[in-house]
Amino acid sequence: MRPWIHSIILLALLAGLSGCASPRGYFVDRGRDAADIFTLALEEGIGVKARAGPIAAGLLSSDGTIGLRGGAFVVEDRGYLNMGVTPPIYEGAADVSVFGFYNIETLHSDKLFPRHKTFHAGHDEQLGVWLQQYDDGGGNPAYYTQVEATLGLGILLRVGLNPGELLDFILGWTTLDIFRDDLRAQDARSGPP
Questions:
Q1: What stretches of the chain show up as alpha helix (H) in DSSP?
Q2: Helices 163-172 and 23-36, axial angle in degrees (round to 10)
Q3: How would you classify the pairing of strands 102-108 and 38-52?
Q4: Nearest to 103 by CA among 150, 157, 65
Q5: Distance between CA atoms of residues 119 and 59, nearest Å
Q6: 88/96 Cα distance (integer angstroms)
Q7: Residue among 50, 54, 49 at smallest CA distance from 129
Q8: CB atoms inside a 10 Å sphere around CB 66
Q9: Where are the beta strands (DSSP E) in 53-185?
């Protein structure tokens, strides 16, 4: 037999031994983990920005997104941000960056929420810290390992690669879920005792 056939048989056996009711959920999670690695989206806006984890530089304003982000094909309309003293309201997708002195970025999609891929991130100049959260009060650890660039005039192109998600994809084959974004594993964790 060819070596790749051995690999497929071994993966199928591992899926069966991992406690899955069926290997289908296991392979769906592997596909989602693979999609998490890359970002390729179009947005409406103007400017240029580069980001490595929470560190961003550039001059950019964008609203909305369409494309592959957070492991799913998302279409999110303009974001709404409340910059007052009340907690921020964030819906859709928005990104504003001014040479690293002021950065705020949000991505909220119902498709991304169950896998903990939505986020709201901003730099607090007074505290000198980067604050990032998502709707259920936790954080999106994949945000800190994302490397991406955005560029355009009117229509922006956002491209990115996430080394942390690559590691999550590789370890996922052994059923380790370091970013806790596998829906099959979430179901197992929240299932009956």
A1: 3-17, 23-36, 163-172, 183-190
A2: 160
A3: unpaired
A4: 150
A5: 20
A6: 14
A7: 54
A8: 15
A9: 55-69, 72-76, 92-98, 102-108, 119-124, 129-133, 147-161
Q: Are 89 and 82 in contact (CB under 8 A)?
A: yes
Q: Which residues are within 8 A (CB) of 69 and not within 5 positions of it... i.e. 6 or more apart? A: 39, 41, 93, 107, 109, 112, 117, 158
Residues 103-161 pLDDT 10s: 788 888 888 888 888 887 876 565 555 565 554 556 688 988 999 999 999 999 999 99
Name the pTM for this structure. 0.77
Token pair recorded at residue 174 = 């052994």
Name residue 24's amino acid. R
CA distance 56 to 147: 10
Tokens (6 digits) for 73 = 């094909």
Beta-ladder partners of 58: 49
Cα dihedral sign, 57-63-67-69: positive
